[in-house]
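Renewal narrative, Specific Aim 1. Our central claim is that a sequence can be written position by position from structural information alone. The example that follows is taken directly from our test logs and has not been curated for this report. It begins with the structure tokens describing the chain, in the order in which they were read.
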């Protein structure tokens, strides 16, 4: 796997962790608008990173979130969870 692809996957994983962490925090601190702004920024960055990855390498999930404008690329290897770090 090339370095750019691996770097982008690591960025996506970090942003997903950040969003989950903010989500849990906001469940108990719903009036923390600074945290909400940080969550929204991380969420937007995550969507952008996923879009970039999928435009370059194909879908991250097998249904529902990304149309397949070319050939059916979901079967291309390696799949995101088969990546070695």
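The sequence written for that structure reads:
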């Amino acid at each position: 796997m090339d370095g750019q692809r691996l770097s982008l996957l690591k960025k996506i994983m970090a942003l997903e962790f950040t969003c989950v962490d903010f989500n849990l925090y906001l469940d108990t601190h719903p009036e923390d608008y600074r945290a909400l702004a940080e969550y929204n920024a991380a969420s937007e960055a995550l969507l952008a990173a996923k879009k970039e990855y999928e435009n370059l390498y194909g879908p991250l999930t097998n249904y529902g979130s990304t149309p397949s404008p070319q050939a059916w690329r979901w079967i291309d290897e390696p799949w995101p969870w088969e990546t070695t770090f």
